[in-house]
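Appendix B. Worked example

We walk through a single record from start to finish. Start with the input: the chain for DUF948 domain-containing protein, Candidatus Magasanikbacteria bacterium GW2011_GWA2_56_11, length 118.
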Amino acid sequence: MTPGSSQDLLYIVLSLCIVWFTVFLCWLLYQAARVLRNANRIIENVTEKLELITDAVDFIKRKVDGLSVSMGAVSGMVSGLVEKFIVNKLSRKFGEQVEKRDRRETGRKRKNTERKDL
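Next comes the structure step. The output line below is what the pipeline stores for this chain.
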């Protein structure tokens, strides 16, 4: 199997080059497939994490909505209690002021009647 002419040698070299080129293309295709597989895994992980974040945000939103409804009722009760206490305190103070004024007026009337009697 010795090459008889330079053309035979050229064909042998070309066939070896084609084999190496084919091996290189197969290796390149394998590496591209690995890169795409890794990219697919990364995208799946990111999608999973985004779903978890979305679920957490929805959970927090539901809790805040429930809390705001509860806080509305609690706020109404607290405002009613505060109003009741303030109104009671103001009415008590008003009553005390009226009593003081009535006492002063009755005291003045007594003094006026005592002066008239003298």
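Two observations about the output. DSSP finds one helix and no strands in the chain. The radius of gyration is 49 Å.
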